[in-house]
Specification:
Mean pLDDT: 79
Number of helices: 24
Low-confidence stretches: 1-10, 387-395, 580-598, 756-774
Strand content: 15-25%
Oligomer: single chain
Largest sheet: 8 strands, mixed
Distance between the termini: 39 Å
Length: about 900
């Protein structure tokens, strides 16, 4: 089901297509919304404008009516005062002549006064003469509303209906003097197309005049014939506006549909002189025509919106493709990384979130490359590490090396062991070989192999001679505790160039070691007597200065079987020499003193405190020996560090051990070896720590000279991370060196051995004795070598030495003895790493040299600053 879901997701639209579609949809939605809102606004605006036009039309209509009545009134008054008219009305002798003369006068004055009709009535309301109907003489109009209002001798005004025509009409009395009434004069203006056109021009609306009858009829209008016809139907019987017209009610606003278009209408009644409706004036505003003025805006908006949508769509498509180009690269790189391919580079030279994401992913790929390379590197070496059941390991490629060889001959096995059977003899040999192995490995030596009762070991690096001498003293002190002087081992030391590497024969792979030092060892062992340590001339020259400083001068002796000079050192002399602190320097972890009877009894198979099952010896340091043990309480493997016997009486060392656990337990970090517990067993203080089955950085450097760049860069970052965690807790390590960095099989590095750590800011000065140096001279800062008060920058200096060795395979300063190395650390500027590795990145070289500045102020202030510079580098 999951596979189907993933397949469906991958076969769908791409992110760029979805963004483009969503963007286009949003643009269209925006344009559509704008069009809809504009349409609503246009309609609302058009309706509001139509209502304002109707208001103007109503005002224009009222003004037109008022002006018409006023004008008629003035015309009628002027005409009524005409002496001829009065004379004709007062003529009694010839009635026909008076009527004819009056009619002529009405017709004559019509052209000059401008009225549309005039009627001359007698005092009873009968027609004397009428301009629009010469034959209407004698017609009784007294029942007409206008006449009825005027008969008492008043002036009257109103709408006069004559058939299907309507007039604004005024009736005025015709008098002589104040009381002599002779008749009435009615004048009127026709309500026709000219009238409605005048109102329409003022109001901006269409106007229609409708007269009442059997059916309302439009008698004057500005409307087109089609619209006029629909208006007549809209005013038909039963229609709301028609009913309002008959009732004489005003309709302020009504919606009509005329000729398929929406209209807004306002109806004003036309009343006669008695106040009865005779028709209506209807002002009409076409909403369609009002909207038409705005529809061009709407059309422009739609066209502009569509063009904008097309343009924006094209631009968005281009920008989406350009913007998502690094995202597509990231997706492809992520898919490749998921399949284990980290060899990709992501570049996005932009400062936005996509650029930040690309940069972060590129850093992640670099971390994964470093982790992969480190794991591959450690795995390749771990494949050749000895398993518990194996006796040897074939490690490293063929190479020529400068080394010091030690040959140990266990003389007691040269003849049958008295009273012991075969198995007992082999068990005893196993014990002696284990003691020899512990003595060699605790002094940073490496076993080359054992043949019969002979063992060959090698020592390399600085102070190799002293370390070999210490191992020899320990072997002679431990293994030499036998009955009978003839059973004491003999040891030989020779130095020179030798070829090492795997040798294949008969489908077997063995480690080969050939060269002059091997031949010299053979010769020296033949010349030695039980309990003697023989030195070749080269080894004697290397150790001359320490012997002389200790007050010993070795005499040269010629061998019986070989002409080469020999130098004899007794076991007691070697023990005394290696127990002396040369020049006040305690070389932590480099010399394992003799006389560890208490700890020598703690061997594999022992049960300590009914809790710890001792499984193996892991190594020795300046303060104690570290065992691999099973913790029965935790049901887990632990590393058990126990204090050496000769240090138990020194309260300073006990306090330092307690300080170690207190400080170390503060630190919780993936790159720091965890500390579990602190206690005492049989009077011996111990620390139980996390057990890691891995290899130290020293072992890696011994095997491969220098680390590959990516593996070294990852290890350097991890070292800084672990040290930074310690400094964050206020703890200084003070002994940063390859021996104190162990690598798990996964490639994760852990900083260990806080045996001489102390707080960066101490509550009380003087924890370390003034002028006394702790640490390993090869890696100490100048201020440490001078016995000064130090801070975290001393650890940064030591870290710089370790980084120099990681990336070049060499130490920045080398000499034949510790004193010369110390002087170089104090006086000489650090050489460029480029001398040993020409391809070193400039930024890495600058970081290492900054760590190695003599003046602490010129170094990195914190290890976090160094780590940031290392993080900027990538594999």
């Amino acid at each position: 089901m999951t596979a189907t879901t993933n397949g469906s997701r991958r076969s769908g639209l791409s992110l760029g297509t979805r963004i483009f579609l969503v963007t286009s949809l949003l643009i269209l939605l925006s344009v559509g919304t704008a069009v809809v809102l504009t349409t609503l606004w246009v309609q609302s605006t058009a309706r509001a404008e139509a209502e304002r036009s109707l208001e103007r039309s109503n005002a224009a209509l009222e003004a037109s009516q008022q002006q018409g009545f006023e004008r008629l009134k003035r015309l009628a008054q002027l005409f009524a005062s005409d002496s001829y008219l009065v004379a004709y009305l007062t003529e009694t002798t010839d009635r026909e002549t008076a009527v004819a003369s009056s009619l002529d006068l009405l017709i004559e004055r019509q052209s000059s006064l401008g009225y549309d009709f005039a009627i001359l009535l007698d005092t009873g309301g009968k027609v004397i003469a009428r301009s629009d109907d010469p034959n209407a003489t004698g017609q009784d109009l007294s029942r007409r509303a206008l006449v009825g209002e005027a008969l008492p001798g008043n002036e009257a005004a109103g709408v006069w209906q004559e058939g299907d025509r309507l007039y604004y009409a005024v009736a005025v009395p015709v008098k002589r003097g104040v009381f002599d009434l002779f008749g009435f004069l009615i004048t009127g203006f026709a309500i026709d197309d000219a009238t409605v056109n005048q109102i329409s021009s003022i109001s901006g609306t269409h106007v229609a005049v409708v007269t009442l009858g059997q059916q309302p009829k439009v008698i004057a209008t500005t409307l087109s014939p089609a619209v006029e016809g629909d208006l007549g139907q809209a005013l038909g019987t039963g229609k709301s506006m028609g009913e309002a017209m008959k009732a004489g009610r005003e309709v302020e606003k009504a919606g009509l549909t005329l000729a398929g278009e929406p209209w807004l209408a306002r109806q004003s009644p036309l009343m006669d002189a008695a106040g009865k409706p005779v028709g209506a004036t209807i002002a009409l505003a076409s909403l369609g025509e009002g909207v038409a003025a705005y529809r061009r805006i709407q059309l422009v908006l739609i066209v502009a919106g569509l063009l904008s949508a097309l343009l924006a769509g094209g631009l968005s498509f281009f920008l989406v493709r350009r913007t998502l180009q690094p995202v597509r690269q990231l997706a492809m790189a992520a898919e490749a990384a998921r399949q284990g391919n980290y060899d990709q580079r992501i570049t996005a030279e932009r400062g936005d979130e996509v650029g930040q994401l690309a940069g972060a992913f590129d850093e992640l790929l670099a971390d994964l490359r470093e982790k992969r390379d480190m794991e591959a590197y450690v795995t390749e070496l771990s494949r050749n590490l000895p398993e518990p059941a194996q006796s040897k390991a074939v490690v490293g490629a063929p190479q020529t090396r400068e080394l010091l060889l030690m040959g140990i001959e266990l003389r007691r096995f040269a003849r049958p062991v008295d009273g012991a059977g075969p198995q007992a003899t082999l068990d005893l040999l196993a014990i002696d070989l284990k003691r020899v192995s512990n003595a060699v490995t605790s002094n940073r030596g490496q076993l080359e192999g054992a043949v019969g009762h002979r063992v060959l070991a090698r020592f390399e690096g600085a102070s190799r001679g002293r370390r070999a001498l210490a191992a020899a003293a320990q072997i002679l002190g431990e293994v030499g505790e036998m009955d009978g002087e003839a059973d004491t081992p003999v040891i030989a030391l020779a130095a020179g160039r030798a070829v090492t590497g795997p040798v294949s024969y008969d489908e077997q792979v063995e480690r080969g070691l050939v060269g002059l030092p091997v031949q010299q060892i053979e010769s020296l062992l033949r010349e030695a007597t039980p309990g003697e340590l023989l030195l070749s001339r080269e080894v004697h020259e290397e150790l001359r200065e320490p012997f002389e400083q200790a007050g010993y001068r070795l005499a040269e002796r010629r061998g019986l079987l070989t002409p080469q000079p020999l130098y004899v050192v007794s076991g007691r002399m070697a023990s005394r020499l290696t127990s002396v602190r040369g020049m006040g320097v305690a070389e932590t972890g480099t010399v394992a003193p003799t006389g560890v009877e208490t700890l020598s009894g703690i061997s594999p198979g022992a049960l300590m405190g009914r809790r710890f099952e001792i499984l193996a010896v892991l190594g020795a340091g300046g303060m104690g020996i570290v065992y691999k043990a099973r913790d029965r309480e935790l049901d887990d493997f632990v590393a058990l560090k126990m204090l050496k016997k000769e240090l138990l009486s020194d309260p300073t060392h006990l306090e330092r051990l307690k300080a170690e656990i207190k400080l170390a337990r503060k630190i919780t970090h993936p790159n720091v070896l965890r500390t579990h517990d602190f206690g005492e067993i049989n009077g011996i203080p111990y620390i139980s720590m996390e057990y890691v089955r891995g290899v130290t950085l020293r072992y890696l450097l011994d095997q491969t000279h220098r680390l590959p760049y990516s593996a070294g860069l990852r290890l350097a970052k991890q070292l800084c991370a672990g040290l930074g965690a310690a400094h964050a807790q206020g703890v200084m390590h003070r002994d940063i060196k390859p021996e104190n960095l162990i690598l798990e099989p996964t490639g994760n590095a852990k900083l260990m051995d806080f045996g001489i750590a102390r707080p960066i800011k101490r509550m009380e000065p003087g924890q370390t004795e003034a002028g006394f140096i702790v640490g390993t001279p090869l890696y100490l800062s100048p201020e440490q070598l001078q016995g000064q008060e130090v801070d975290a920058r001393a650890d940064i200096y030591s870290t710089g030495v370790v980084l120099f060795e990681i990336f070049t395979g060499e130490l920045p300063f080398n000499a034949s003895n510790a004193v010369d190395i110390m002087l170089k650390h104090l006086r000489e500027p650090a050489p460029s790493p480029r001398v040993h590795w020409p391809e070193i990145p400039p930024k890495l070289e600058a970081a290492i040299l900054r760590c190695l500045e003599k003046d602490p102020e010129a170094r990195y202030r914190t290890v976090e600053e160094l780590q940031r510079d290392l993080e900027a580098l990538s594999a």
